[in-house]
Structure formats: C-alpha cells, structure tokens
Specification:
Length: 218
C-alpha cells in the first residue's frame, strides 16, 4: 500500500516524538478539520506544539509524519499513558464537514488499518479509539456514524487480505517441490497452474502422456 512519507526532522524529536516505541495497537482519530492529509502532516511538523501523530489519511492519500518506532502525542493520556506511548495513531481527514470526502477517507483508512493489522499479525481487537484513553469524543464523526460499523469495515478489508493470501499460497508450489515443478513446466509436462490443487484422472493421463512422448518420441 502506497504511503507518502513527510517525516518530522530529528531536530524536532524532543517536541514531537521524544521516546522510542514498539507499537502495541492502533488509535483512530478524526482531525476535526477539513485539510488534506499532506496539509495536516505539514502543519503538525511546522508548529512547535506538543501534538503529533503517525499517519493522516484523506480520500486519496496516506501520509506518514512520525516513524513507527517513535511515540507521538495524540491520545491525551499524559507523558506515560499507554495511548501516547504504545499507540500507532491514525488521523482520518475531512471530518469537520463530513460528506463524501470524509466517507472516502474513512474507507481508505479502513483499508490502511487492515493492511497494518495484517503486517503486524494483529486482529481488530488492537484497533482503539482516542476516546478510550482520554474520554474525548474522538473520532467524533466515526463515532456518530457507528464505531462497530467502522470496525466491521476494517474486518472486511482484513478478511479480503487474508483471502488473497490463501489464493496466492494455493498458486505457489511448496519449497520442496519447486525444483521439480519448474522442471515440469520447462519440459511442457504441466502448464504451471494450480500446483496445490487435486488432479483428475484426465489430467494425470495427459501429464503421463506428455512425459512418455518426451522420453519415447517415436
């Protein structure tokens, strides 16, 4: 998944992300603004406020502002709070006015969160809301539209990613069979598809016949 990086300079780490971090969950926010992801990240980097976040997502792009191995100030639970010290923060843009741009931003955020969950081997129980850490009504528009609805969107995207993995795995020969499989393709004994599927008797006879013709051409 394409992510545009505009990372805070190291000279501002002491303000924006002073601590090393190993993320343990994802924290979802709404920006309460109508700026694009690029503009949200640019403004966060430009100012000297002790406010920061890892990613901003709008209707078209995902922009990263803080490295994942650094903390960010986003959860409102203090300098040692789990939200600020263990949470990977994602801001969904265009939530002030809502409308179609926000709907599309939320869809892209669900895709991105699912991508991150799969990457890290997590499930949707690792998806938290800002409200969980500070009580703030955030992500405000996502909450108004239904938090479980959003989690269902993320789960559907995660299921799709896992399903794609299964298809890819089915179409990739096992390591122990790879040499023989490549040989059979090169010799024209198999067309190279469906290496882990079962074989019909017609297919078995056809492959034996191809092999026989190669060994005994006349």
């Amino acid at each position: 998944m394409k992510v545009i990086q505009n990372l805070v300079p190291t000279s501002k780490y002491n303000i924006k992300c002073p601590y090393p971090m190993t993320p343990e969950f994802i924290v979802v926010h709404n920006t309460a603004n109508d700026a694009s992801a690029r503009n949200e990240v640019a403004y966060m980097i430009r100012n000297d406020n002790k406010v920061s976040f890892h990613y901003a997502v709008d209707d078209k792009e995902i922009v990263q502002g803080i490295p994942e191995n650094r903390n960010a100030w986003h959860a409102g639970d203090g300098s040692n709070g789990p939200g600020n010290r263990k949470g990977l923060s994602i801001e969904i843009c265009y939530s002030k006015s809502g409308g179609q741009r926000f709907i599309e931003a939320e869809k892209l955020a669900a895709k991105f969160i699912a991508f991150k969950l799969k990457e890290k081997g997590w499930d949707t129980d690792r998806v938290k809301k800002h409200q969980d850490f500070s009580g703030k009504n955030c992500p405000h528009r996502t909450l108004d539209m239904g938090w479980q609805r959003f989690l269902n969107m993320v789960q559907a995207e995660l299921n799709a990613l896992k399903g794609a993995d299964k298809v890819e795995d089915k179409n990739t020969p096992s390591s122990w069979a790879k040499e023989a499989w490549e040989w059979a393709k090169k010799e024209g004994i198999t067309d190279g598809t469906r290496p882990k599927d079962t074989m019909t008797r017609e297919e078995m006879v056809t492959m034996l016949h191809r092999y026989h013709k190669k060994v005994f051409p006349k």
